[in-house]
Amino acid sequence: MVCGGFVCTKNALCALNILYVLVSLLLIGVAAWGKWFGLVSSINVVAGVISVGIFLFLVAFVGLCGALKHHQVLLFFYMMILFLVFVVQFSVSCACLALNKDQQNHLLEVGWNKSEATQQDVEKTLDCCGFSSVNYNGTCAARCFKDNSQSCQTCSDIIQHYAGQVLQFVGGLGLFFSFTEILGVWLAHRYRNIKDPRSNPGAFL
To answer: pLDDT below 50 — which residues of the chain?
Structure first.
């Protein structure tokens, strides 16, 4: 049986979905670990990551069941969902790679102002206070603020230093996984249209 036949396509599709299952479990585990050890206090961030992990797990589960049973309906819905995910992820990845400094700063400030829990996480992790200015009469979770040394940096200075690298990494990683998704769509489409050599030829749809 040459690669590209029924068995090879089935194995490739199963392997791809097993990879998605592992990635989804990794996302869920990392989010739960970060919350458990207090590394991330924002429930919105944790819930978002866990939701993405669960969604990816369900999609991979549908694809895996469809591949193992050669189920036409499951494979069709798997193709449609994976293609929509590809479109969204590819667009977001390209946007991450195309953002300039001003756009990055605006998005960072919008995200900063949306959640006080996220602000505290960033201040504690990066040892900084405030986004664009330090208010020493207010509150801050950074160590430098508690030392009363009045030598704290603003968080925007530190974040912007790494924002470009992070966006490049996230965009590149997103592009990589988006191409694995289009590969999954192609494999599922091909697999649906290959006759199972072990089945009754008249039973194939």
So the answer is: 1-2, 203-205
